[in-house]
Amino acid sequence: MFSRTPLALGGAAFLLAAVTACSPVEENNSATTPSASSDTCAPASLATKTAGKLTVGTDNPAYEPWFSENKPDNGKGYESAVAYQVAERLGYQRSDVVWTGVMFNNAIAPGPKAFDIDVNQFSITDERRAAVDFSSPYYLVRQTVITTKKSKIAGAKSLADLKDAKLGAQVGTTSYQAITDVIKPTAGPAVFNNNDDAKKALENGTVDGIVVDLPTAFYMTAAELEDGVIVGQLPQVGVPEQFGIVLDKGSPLTGCVSRAVDQLRQDGTLAVLEKTWLAGSSGAPELQ
Fold first, then answer.
1. What confidence tens digit (pLDDT) does each residue in 123-158 have?
2. Residue 230's closest CA among 153, 164, 279, 284?
3. pTM more than 0.85
4. Which label site among 11, 220, 272, 285 has the fewest CB atoms less than 10 Å from its CB?
5. What's the CA gap between 93 and 52, in Å, rounded?
């Protein structure tokens, strides 16, 4: 299991200590967001769902290590901490942040949203951009195959070794897309409503392995699966995959939220949050 130390959610001393850290992501210049100024990004100027409040959506359950104890509002876990830091940069107090449960697929579907922003490991894709807005990226992600020691793919070293495997992933995710577009197994992938269902299928042998993002892979194999094994990271294809905050299409908040994320990247805060909550999420074998 990862070593985690809760991180204070604000304070100039904390941010100054973070400056020397490396930035965990580079901004994806292929996708631009509106510019914003300090005046237009103050809470009094932002057209949020509830005046003076910032409504933040995420899935239920909210998984480790992105959240902790399925309590998004406790500030623990990488995405919870990022959300509170974004809120702080926008001028909101912690008490002004309101969390709401939103299913993954509903958050990226066309139509009005019940949230101002949503943080839930959403990879930025052109297809999704047709329905929603994304902030600047806050995390560079790798998709990863995991299994158990008794599985026939536990010793797989290459994509070719996975051709005959029955694999699965959560519906609507880039993890699922990685199976169809990168691994391309002979058998069609199994699809699950959430990672809990995927994990159960792996445990009972319905699938040989499942695909998740790398930090989730480390957490699940260390803390949730008996004899869990990381088979390996999948190759990056094309533009590196990055997580972004989701907003309603054409949201007036998009530029302000991107500005806040950019500040967190540039002053090293994202790097510190990554080291705090995603420590150990590196060093997994590479599948070629």
1. 999 999 999 999 999 999 999 999 999 999 999 999
2. 284
3. no
4. 11
5. 10
